[in-house]
Design goal:
Length: about 220
Amino acid sequence: MLLFARNPEEEALQKTYCTQEKQNRQIAKALFEGSKKLVRKSGLPYRVITEKAQRGNSFAERFTNALEDVFSEGYDSVISIGGDCPFIQAKEIENAAAALAQGKSCLGPAKDGGIYLLAISRKQYYSEDFLQFSWETSLLFEEMKAYLADDLASLELLRPLADIDASFDLLSLLYSCENAFLQFARSLLLVFIPFVYAPSLSPRLCFAKVQLRGPPEK
């Protein structure tokens, strides 16, 4: 497995989850540590490659070089995730590993048009092609799906999940998640909401300014 992500300090500089600097760093750390825990618990060999070990001038170059590093160590396949999708579960990793064992590739589509998981074998990987994808755009999933699927039988698609890029994403997830998801979202919000009255959430937030719509009056 490959966890390809910025470390929490750098991620907090690049993304604004919250207007408070300290809480912004804490959210970035919670997301990163959650992804790292998932990778460790998978039971698969794994590497964590942050910006300190990444090589290249663009995301495409850095990610392609990271895949090259994994394959150069003798692995025949790789499952790669980032550090910004907290709702990936063990079943996604298991399904991706099962797809690889059947000779398939696997994609986890992000709701913004990107991907949150990529599972490919060495024979499906060509660095020249990977450098041409529209990384970090809403076009990526469709491009990769077309590239990896000679027919639908060769590609396994996971359920769509949202990734976290800003405070609005956290709010959207809070209002859309259910059961275990809601518990996670609330625990994450405790990090950067300075006043919380459990089990309800305080309206005094440190979010970046987002216009919220309340429920209709009775």
